[in-house]
């Protein structure tokens, strides 16, 4: 029953998406408002139908309806309710269903927003965009209608299922990380559709960069937080004490983040100076292409084939979709290249435009480095038939210099003025931050921080942070002097006077904090592994870890073995940590839950590796990672900064509304004439 | 004329930057490739792969596992399916639970002139698919037994 409902609703949604997409294009082409209205209604209908399909799948999972193929694949009567609910995205078919839900949700949002804008049909940009976005919907709905259909009927109906992938039911964080990441990843379809709409309509006027920027910043924020959440999950669950392994799946989420970040910067140059138009629109198209490519690489089994794992039937579909999008976008860009000519020119080498240019080149180079490293095994296998993989050191060697330059630019860019900066101005601005950074470097070296790369990162981060603080402090000082306001009042007034700019500064500050955390945890990590008798101890860094006992617990979906340890620093008891191993019926190997003592100074990370059956000894791995917590802290700061930039004050909203009203009045009077 | 000169300079500058970047990336990839080899292929390559990263896949030779519980050093031999070629492997740290004689294993590391493969990462080959264990099997038991076996 659930299977029938789910599949029918999916097919209906597919039909509406096809019709809606066609109606939007026809309406935009023939300037027929009725068609556009029909397309908008179809867009909302697709969302409602996909939401019903999603709810049906949840119901099937919760009620253990094993006649539905996906439930038989990931469901189990013993899985706790929470993990049953989130198991919807624990395998391929379900994750595409989640993808479709988010995509159709964005479609409905775009419709709502277009209606509120009350766009005249004479300006078909939004209708073309809706048609494009619905076309993307068609593709994903096609996937879950046919090759990745989660609603197939099982016969005979199994009595029970294996439960979700053991790794995914090992941490409640799996309820947060995938939806967050998908909301960012899938959301990149919206700016892509708006860009295609603008190209098709030939309307690349001053308004579209602002609009597309906003529609990019929303998914960008989710993508940033989703990537951070993934890193945190990897750290908290996988038990290797690291958070990033340049795994294809990680790279797939990181590449569009890089190009979207480049876009968010270059679009400012376009908005301000009318330059880099072609480049900017290429970036947003490229971002979307990278999300499709990333999904293809990680979900079709093509990269995993290097490790001789199973194939999945959706590969050719993705390849075809990728080819359509790529060729279509290239044709559009070539066709409209005339309208993408630069209006402005570079006036001077020392200007914010130049800083943005360099920033964009660095982000593009970074994305290329990651793309090449991710794709190289495929290229090598196709070209020479040799099986290779690209080691982590390649990514680190290549990305560290680029990242260091970006850390430097995170402070220098905002400090440079538009058009033309003078050396005197820069000397004034750079003096104090340079002095502070150099002093910090000398002090750090004196206290024993001698790792060159880490030291360089710290110095550059302090320098950039100094420049950012100065950029905020200057207008605050002016306000205080002029209006006699208190520091906090003046700071708030300055920050809310230009949310985009100061939100951006906060994001930069968060990135600096993350950079410091990465450098410190990579350079000064220590680890040890001991087999300890009961009551015995092992020492790593400042910590002495005593193994107290080991016992077993039985839970509905798994068995656990827990080791109790006491951690001493010097002679003082610091904390008690209990790493555990979990045995899932479906997993051949136990999955650990590390125990972590977190602090901003350093994390102590304990993993239970093994134990003897009599409980007399255990093998424990201990990892000390300095400042790893700064990475998560920086992630929060980035998220706060982005939210601050996105938040529209009431005054701003009413100003926009007034602007739109005058525009509407103008259009109306033109129509009457 | 001054404009075109500036433009030409920009193009040349950009070209140089791109070339240098391409050279660096190419070199970076070349130095960090990990080759997937079998024991026979490794022996055939001989001294040419000393020091470079290799992922070696084979079968753990029966009777070859030696575990030192004090130093956490694990020694074993990897052989081809037809038992023609054998490579001595040394790795540090407790192996995965499934590790045992006759099982397929993959080690990542380097081969040195002393004929020993130094592994920094040991993986046991099993399908990525999650399957229910055969009836009556208790994965947790395997692990305990394995650990006891290694202790002795």
Could you walk me through the main structural features you see in this protein, from its secondary elements to its overall organization?
The complex is a heterodimer of chains A (673) and B (152). In chain A, 64% of the residues lie in helices and 11% in strands. With 673 residues, chain A is an alpha+beta fold. In chain A, strands 3, 4, 5, 6, 7 and 8 form a six-stranded antiparallel beta sheet that branches. The radius of gyration of chain A is 27 Å and the shape is globular. The termini of chain A are far apart. The model of chain A is unreliable at 305-310 (pLDDT under 50). Chain B has a five-stranded mixed barrel with strand order 2-4-5-7-6. With 152 residues, chain B is an alpha+beta fold. At the A-B interface, helix 13, strand 1, helix 14 and strand 10 of A face helix 1, strand 1 and helix 3 of B.
Question: What would a concise description of this structure say?
Answer:
The complex is a heterodimer of chains A (673) and B (152). Chain A is α+β, with helices and mostly antiparallel strands.
Characteristic terms for this protein:
heterodimer; A: 673 residues; alpha+beta; 6-stranded antiparallel β-sheet; 4-stranded antiparallel β-sheet; 11 strands; 64% helix; globular; B: 152 residues; 5-stranded mixed β-barrel; 3 helices; 7 strands; 33% helix; elongated
